[in-house]
Specification:
about 15% helix; 8-stranded antiparallel β-sheet; mainly beta; single chain; about 140 residues; 2 helices
């Protein structure tokens, strides 16, 4: 089972995002991929997440696979697209915050920042479900 929270058609015509979360033995990893019409130039990435309970987490990470151009992809709506990936390390208590739902995201890993706000959670519970599933597989690996 793979659960990913996806923002395929953002309100910005130049950016599309995929997010995933994965549990590790004593931590978690938030994975973020951007699909953009413009070449990424920032080596560092940050994301500010405001949860529905009004707690805020700012995470920093490094951009991976920068400036790789891929063939046209109708799913993301781009004729040509550049893909970048960033990984953010989370403490278990930070990963648990996703159960409250996400109110807003501010992301900086492409030439222009991305910001979006939601009145109702569309991502947080999906990511939290993925975290719990991944955590169960870490604690009780399949033989």
């Amino acid at each position: 089972m793979t659960v990913q929270a996806q923002i395929r058609n953002t309100d910005d015509p130049d950016i599309s995002l995929d997010m995933d979360i994965e549990a590790k033995a004593k931590a978690a990893i938030l994975k973020l991929s951007t699909f953009s019409r413009v070449s990424q130039i920032t080596p560092d990435a940050y994301i500010v997440i405001t949860f529905m309970n009004d707690s805020v987490q700012k995470l920093t990470g490094r951009v991976r696979n920068d400036n790789k151009m891929y063939e046209p992809d109708a799913g993301h709506g781009f004729a040509d697209r550049f893909v970048s990936h960033a990984v953010f390390n989370l403490k278990p208590e930070q990963a648990e915050l996703f159960k409250y739902g996400i109110k807003s995201l501010q992301i900086r890993m492409v030439p222009k920042p991305y910001y979006h706000e939601w009145e109702e959670d569309e991502l947080g519970l999906l990511l939290y479900s993925r975290y719990l599933f991944s955590k169960q597989n870490v604690m009780f690996p399949k033989k």
